[in-house]
Write a structure and sequence with these properties.
Layout (H helix, E strand, L loop, with lengths): L25 H4 L6 H36 L3 H27 L3 E3 L30 E6 L18 H6 L6 E3 L6 E3 L2 E6 L5 E6 L14 H11 L6 H10 L2 E6 L2 E5 L9 H6 L16 H4 L11 E2 L5 E2 L3 E6 L19 E6 L3 H9 L5 E3 L3 H7 L3 H4 L3 E7 L8 E4 L9 H10 L2 H7 L6 E2 L22 H10 L4 E2 L5 E2 L7 E7 L2 H15 L4 E7 L1 H9 L5 E4 L11 H4 L24 H11 L4 H18 L2 E3 L1 E2 L2 E7 L2 E2 L23 E2 L1 H13 L7 E4 L29
Parallel strand pairs: 1-7, 2-12, 14-27, 19-20, 19-21
Antiparallel strand pairs: 3-4, 5-6, 6-8, 7-8, 9-11, 10-11, 11-12, 13-24, 14-24, 15-21, 15-22, 16-23, 17-18, 25-26
């Protein structure tokens, strides 16, 4: 697990945080096995009733708005009402379209397939990786914590190991090419768009198999949905996404699938919107039932991935090993043949990064992220690097910038006051963090979603550190006098204090101390709440935090907003905070609800951009998120037997990778490993390698500070681990 990483993977248009579908069935609880046929019938009835209810609800809202519109004299109010009216009419149109489709889960005759479809296969895109890559060897890496479960869905499944076990290695119907951003085939051999632009048809590879050898068929993608809709599965994210963001799953035979959305979207995104899902192993879940989460707690089911986990390869609390499937059906096919090369990937649990670094120095780990200046400038200045045994690489990517910063829970006083949040934005000195902790290598992040090209609002910029502006905002909120410690108080004597929850690592502790000491100058007392990673995450998704320092990782090509800012993911029908959603801001606003609905249902790129820009402007104006820092490179240290591509198609790693390791284009050269270990024993050396890969660099080159330059120091609080 990277030292600077919190993973919250989400698919465009799929992982949209959501309400429970409410499709409970008491009969299902007592049965074992998926019993899919009966489930599909029940769910189809549920969707039919739900759509009728949604249409009626929207119709009632339309009547209210029309009455208000007739009475509204203010022009701005008229515009607001007209916008709301259009959205509710759109909801009616979507519901009526879906009612016209028939069953949500449908089994059709192949003759019902539309004629004159234009099939695409994406094979004109360049290959990925390096033909020189070798299969074999073991890649040794580490996690700082052991996952609370290895289930793909259900309670605690959205943990830091999820990407390594599923999201980064599974093959979906289609994928985005990580260099050109073209749609490329996965399990689908080809795809076609319906005339109305709402349905994508996928023709599956007949040879497609799960990694246990069982064939993958069209109905397995219905099982993907069926598993996430089950009452036995705590899967809030997907229950509403499947209900609201899909209109129909249609099976036309073993290898032909249709997926329909309620509205047409950009044709550039549409195949990915529908096709960024993997199959559910229908044949595997014979014991599916009310004890699902407990029964499958430590079982990785068959997936479409090139790696499997055997039961003996999981040692709880210590390690987990993935084994490459030798006869993986995609092994020799374009886009996959030069990737996933190591025979085994071993993840050891090493809680202390300093200990992990020592194990890397000893050659027991093959790869270590050294993006942090402490590692790059100081710790990696070592004999193994000078002697050429370990190679350092600086690799520039084009991955959307992770939103490192402070996430405020607006349901928690005093953060329910906008002027308090405004003051904190001015009182939080990220430039000092960049200078002191990151030695000037990083830069200030401007907003919640940066690095998405035209989708990013260029007018949104971060508030600068300003003691005067911070105190002005605090005064507007009633905090005007200081106590003996210099902390502001209101008329009731309440001190201006805010708790900041964060994952307790030495680097993050240093960041928090800088922020705390600087904020005191503006009269704020940040209470530092450093927790173990799992505990921090549970506290935040339970909405029990005030401020949270972290970053949520978005998957290209576009960010998600509904899950983070729609009121449905903030509060339930009774007004209680809704746990286990990504709206960690507890933010609810009518205008934001309209915008996030419009964004996720955008028909064109222009519509998507327009809504995205306004959403970003509101997030900045409301100071829900204080942008922190960013960088456009990863620095890694690897033993020289870890090899990387150097081809026209792939320079080191594809640019749409967060860190190089996650592209799986590396390989282990056993001959070089033997040569290196022999050289170490004999004391012979190789030339030092300091690699800089700028093929995907987007910013002008900056002069990097020399390691010996003096830098400002800051006192660390007692008890913080070094």
């Amino acid at each position: 697990m990277s030292l600077l990483r919190t993973v919250s993977f989400s698919f465009l248009g799929l992982v949209l945080l959501l309400q429970l579908c409410g499709c409970k069935d008491n009969d299902e609880v007592g049965k074992m096995g998926l019993n899919s046929e009966a489930f599909y019938a029940r769910y189809n009835r549920y969707i039919a009733d739900w759509l009728e209810g949604e249409k009626q609800r929207a119709g009632e809202e339309i009547a209210k708005i029309e009455k208000s519109l007739a009475e509204a004299a203010d022009e701005e109010e008229q515009k607001r009402l007209q916008s709301s009216l259009a959205e509710f009419q759109r909801q009616v149109d979507r519901a009526e379209f879906r009612q016209g489709l028939g069953d949500f889960f449908a089994f059709k005759d192949p003759v019902e397939l539309p004629e004159n479809l234009v099939w695409e296969d994406g094979m004109d895109a360049p290959d990925i990786g390096d033909p020189a890559a070798k299969k074999g060897g073991v890649f040794n890496y580490f996690w700082t914590t052991f996952p609370p479960t290895v289930r793909q869905i259900g309670s605690n499944s959205n943990n830091g190991a999820r990407g390594d076990l599923y999201d980064l290695i599974e093959v979906y119907l289609v994928h985005f090419h990580p260099v050109t951003q073209q749609i490329i085939p996965g399990i689908a051999k080809e795809w076609a768009l319906s005339e109305d632009g709402r349905t994508v048809y996928f023709r599956l590879h007949p040879e497609a198999k799960f990694n246990d050898g069982h064939p993958i068929e069209a109905e397995d993608f219905l099982t993907w949905a069926r598993l996430r809709l089950a009452d036995q599965v705590d899967s809030i994210y997907f229950k509403q996404a499947i209900r609201e963001q899909f209109a129909q799953f249609s099976v036309y035979g073993p290898h032909l699938l249709g997926i329909t959305l309620p509205e047409a979207k950009s044709k550039d995104f549409m195949p990915y919107e529908c096709g960024s899902i993997g199959p559910g192993a229908t044949h595997f879940f014979k014991d599916f039932g009310p004890d699902f989460e407990e029964r499958y707690q430590w079982i990785v089911p068959p997936t479409s991935a090139p790696y499997r986990m055997d039961p003996e390869d999981l040692v709880k609390g210590e390690s987990l090993t993935l084994t490459r499937v030798d006869d993986w059906w995609l092994r020799d096919r374009k886009f996959y043949r030069n990737r996933f090369n190591a025979d085994k990937i071993v993840y050891r649990v090493i809680n202390n990064p300093t200990k992990a670094w020592e194990l890397f120095r000893a050659g027991e780990l093959d790869y270590f992220g050294i993006t942090l200046p402490e590692y790059y400038y100081d710790r990696s200045e070592m004999p193994a690097v000078f002697d050429g045994y370990v190679e350092r690489s600086t690799w520039y990517n084009q991955y959307p910038r992770l939103p490192w910063g402070l996430y405020f829970n607006t349901a928690e006083p005093p953060l329910d006051n906008k002027m308090i949040r405004r003051g904190l934005a001015y009182a939080t000195n990220w430039d000092k963090v960049i200078d002191v902790v990151f030695r000037g290598d990083f830069s200030r992040l401007d907003g919640f979603t940066s690095g998405y090209g035209k989708i990013t609002n260029p007018d949104v910029t971060a508030r600068p550190f300003s003691i005067n502006k911070a105190r002005e905002a605090f005064a507007a909120a009633g905090y005007t006098r200081e106590d003996k410690d210099g902390i502001l108080m209101n008329e009731q004597g309440k001190r201006l204090e805010v708790s900041l929850t964060f994952t307790s690592t030495p680097e993050r502790a240093k960041i928090m101390v800088v922020l705390k000491e600087e904020a005191r100058k503006a009269g704020v007392n940040y209470i530092l709440d450093g927790l173990e990673a799992t505990s921090a995450y549970k506290k935040v998704v339970s909405k029990e935090h005030q401020g949270y320092f972290s970053a949520w990782q978005f998957t290209p090509p576009a960010p998600a907003y509904y899950e983070y800012f729609h009121s449905r993911n903030a509060y339930d029908e009774k007004g209680n905070r809704k746990a286990q959603t990504n709206n960690v801001f507890s933010y609810a606003d009518d205008r934001m609800d309209v915008l996030t609905d419009n964004y996720r249902n955008a028909r064109t790129m222009e519509e998507l951009i327009e809504n995205a820009h306004e959403i970003q402007a509101i997030v900045a104006e409301e100071d829900l998120f204080i942008p922190g820092y960013t960088n456009e490179f990863s620095r890694v240290a690897t033993w020289r037997w870890v090899r990387w591509p150097d081809t026209e198609e792939t320079r080191f790693a594809p640019p749409l990778s967060y860190i190089p390791m996650e592209s799986y284009v590396y390989w282990i050269d056993e001959d070089i490993k033997e040569e290196t270990l022999e050289a170490k024993r004999k004391g012979t050396t190789f030339p030092e390698v300091e690699r800089v890969v700028e093929a995907y660099r987007t910013q002008p080159k900056l002069e990097e500070p020399a390691p010996s330059e003096p830098r400002q120091e800051i006192n660390l609080e007692e008890g913080i681990e070094e």
